UniProtKB/TrEMBL annotation:
The keyword Nuclease applies. It holds the Pfam family DUF559. The lineage of its organism: Bacteria, Pseudomonadati, Bacteroidota, Flavobacteriia, Flavobacteriales. The keyword Hydrolase applies. Gene3D superfamilies: VSR Endonuclease. Keywords: Endonuclease, Hydrolase, Nuclease. Residues 21-126 form the DUF559 domain. This is Endonuclease domain-containing protein. It comes from Flavobacterium magnesitis. GO terms for molecular function: endonuclease activity.
Length: 130
């Protein structure tokens, strides 16, 4: 078995070239909340864990992903309050969790106004991992 192929299937869950292209565009146009969160987690700042931003996973692009923890962090703007978007978000979360990933969602406001509480919630998740 080709180890690199297996790694990429695990890491990206079979994401297509189009999803990789979308991820690149999203990295170039981050929101203020995404930028603030990225500065808080890049360079393994949370308990030594590596987070990736705008990471391709299957048919989705996760805002942030830690492969070692199988953890997806989603940062939701105001449009996520829309009923239709909430249904799409629930499906996305279910799809990702079906693949063995954990999804934690935060709002832009939580990131911008309560970043330390967000970091504490992530650390709490890390501390519950076996």
């Amino acid at each position: 078995m080709d180890k690199s192929k297996n790694h990429s299937e695990n890491m990206w869950k079979g994401a297509s070239p189009q999803i990789f292209s979308n991820a690149k565009k999203l990295r170039e146009t981050q929101t203020e909340a995404e930028e603030k969160f990225w500065l808080a987690v890049k360079d393994n700042k949370i308990d030594g864990y590596k987070f990736r931003r705008q990471h391709p996973l299957s048919i989705y692009v996760a805002d942030f992903y830690c492969h070692a923890l199988k953890l997806v962090i989603e940062i939701d703007g105001g449009y996520h309050l829309d009923e239709e978007q909430q249904l799409l978000d629930k499906k996305r979360t279910a799809d990702l969790e079906f693949q063995g990933l954990k999804v934690i969602r935060f709002t832009n406001e939580e990131i911008l106004l309560k970043l330390q509480e967000v970091i504490d919630k992530i650390k709490s998740f890390i501390n519950t991992k076996p």
